[in-house]
Amino acid sequence: MRTSNAAAVAAPAVEREARASGCSKEAKIAELRRQFFEGAYRVDPAKVSAKMIDAHLSASDGRG
Asked: Which helix (DSSP H) or strand (DSSP E) does residue 53 occupy?
């Protein structure tokens, strides 16, 4: 996969700026972005499937 070098370089700066402003949501996004571009982002398939099942069961629309 080809990634944007500018985005990979900008992520740490965005993370620092978000932390300085006290915005934890943007800091978390910047950290996840950094991990993704470094190839270190990992997803736990068991957690993803459990959340998908929970969301499906809680989103009952009355059809069954």
From this structure: helix 45-58
